[in-house]
């Protein structure tokens, strides 16, 4: 786990909303900057880690960091407004203050993946946790083999990061493959589940390191599909979500079998979570 810039990891630091970007109905990106210059200088994160964002008077939620670790001064979070806290966060605009604790958790194996192909498979707002790893690989394109980004949405109007997908696609040896469950006029991607686009993934990306996040049924279906295509189980990683409170391995709220998602995850080798994913209610 990366050290947090606060001496007390339970204490939120004040962060200012620098910009809010509306990505799709109910989905927005908050660009945050820590108000304290010392904390700002000390803040560093790894792709795949998350922060706890605190809406004063309402509560805290775990949200992935989606920006480039090369620029930790501005910390981006893409959020879907689903409940109490996130529906409050959607009302914040530039200049507003919220609390931030973090970064927390184990992120993607970007160091171990060096020299290999990369395959990102995501569904819905699940693309957020991989965004930072994609930025990381794009910034260091010569360190990795072919990169394939496969993303599925229910309908095209729910697609976020249109600009990012366009710019990622223009990077060398990079594919962006989109699928929507229901087509709408103008849709140029595939129609169906995200597994539909796996036929088009470059073989070196398919045989490289796979990083996935999204609904758990999707994670299972994609992992099985990749293994049928010859991918090794030890090359498949997933980012998991559970309700979090302390984010420090103390409260037990995020427990998943023997693991605590907040400190042992949220990124896990698929082999470690495969059995639990098929147990209903875990
Ligand atoms: C490690 C980690 C990273 C995360 N990263 C992100 C992220 O980058 N962006 C993001 O938007 N969310 C992310 N989440 C999920 C986010 O923490 C929850 O959406 C949030 O806790 C909801 O809080 P709330 O108070 O707004 O909703 P609550 O009041 O707690 O929930 C309200 C209702 O929404 C439902 N609900 C809660 N979470 C979800 C969900 N994820 N999808 C659909 N329905 C839900 C609940 O079942 C409930 O019915 C992450 C979670 C974890 C554990
Ligand atoms: S959130 Fe408290 S133990 Fe993980």
From TrEMBL:
Q: Which UniProt keywords apply?
A: 2Fe-2S, Iron, Iron-sulfur, Metal-binding
User: Could you confirm whether the keyword Lipid metabolism appears in this record?
Assistant: no
Which residues are [2Fe-2S] cluster-binding? 246, 251, 254, 262
Q: Where are the transmembrane segments?
A: none
Q: Which cofactor does it need?
A: [2Fe-2S] cluster
Among the GO biological process terms of this entry, one is:
pyrimidine nucleotide biosynthetic process
Every FAD-binding FR-type domain range: 10-110
Cofactor: record remark: Binds 1 [2Fe-2S] cluster per subunit.
Q: CDD domains annotated for this entry?
A: sulfite_reductase_like (cd06221)
Q: Does the keyword Iron-sulfur apply?
A: yes
GO molecular function annotations of the record: 2 iron, 2 sulfur cluster binding; flavin adenine dinucleotide binding; metal ion binding; oxidoreductase activity
List, alphabetically, the SUPFAM superfamilies matched: Ferredoxin reductase-like, C-terminal NADP-linked domain (SSF52343), Riboflavin synthase domain-like (SSF63380)
Please indicate which superkingdom the organism of origin belongs to. Bacteria
Q: What is any Pfam family matched here?
A: DHODB_Fe-S_bind
- Tell me which InterPro entries the record gives: Cyt_c3_hydrogenase_gsu, Dihydroorotate_DH_Fe-S-bd, FAD-bd_FR_type, FNR_nucleotide-bd, OxRdtase_FAD/NAD-bd, PyrK_electron_transfer, Riboflavin_synthase-like_b-brl
What is the name of this protein?
A: Ni/Fe hydrogenase subunit gamma
């Amino acid at each position: 786990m990366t050290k947090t810039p606060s001496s007390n990891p339970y204490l939120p630091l004040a962060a200012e909303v620098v910009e809010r970007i509306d990505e799709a109905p109910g989905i927005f990106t908050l660009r945050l900057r820590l108000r304290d210059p010392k904390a700002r200088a000390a803040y560093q994160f790894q792709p795949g880690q998350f922060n706890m964002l605190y809406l004063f008077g309402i509560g805290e939620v775990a949200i992935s960091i989606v920006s480039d670790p090369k620029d930790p001064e501005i910390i981006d979070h893409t959020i879907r407004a689903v409940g109490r806290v996130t529906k409050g966060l959607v009302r914040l605009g530039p200049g507003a203050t919220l609390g931030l604790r973090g970064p927390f958790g184990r992120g993607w194996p970007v160091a171990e993946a060096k020299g290999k192909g990369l395959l990102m498979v995501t569904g819905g707002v699940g693309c957020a946790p991989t965004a930072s790893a994609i930025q990381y690989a794009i910034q260091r394109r010569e360190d990795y083999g072919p990169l394939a980004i496969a993303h599925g949405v229910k309908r095209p109007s729910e697609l976020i990061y249109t600009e990012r997908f366009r710019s990622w696609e223009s990077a060398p040896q990079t594919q962006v493959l989109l699928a929507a469950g229901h087509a709408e006029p103008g849709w140029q991607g595939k129609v169906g589940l995200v597994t539909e686009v796996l036929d088009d993934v470059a073989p070196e990306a398919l045989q490289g390191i796979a990083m996935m996040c999204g609904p758990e049924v999707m994670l299972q279906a994609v992992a099985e599909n990749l293994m049928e295509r010859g991918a090794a189980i030890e090359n498949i990683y997933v980012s998991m979500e559970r309700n979090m409170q302390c984010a420090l391995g103390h409260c037990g709220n995020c427990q998943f079998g023997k693991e605590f998602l907040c400190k042992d995850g949220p990124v896990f080798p698929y082999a470690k979570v495969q059995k639990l994913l098929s147990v209903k209610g875990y």
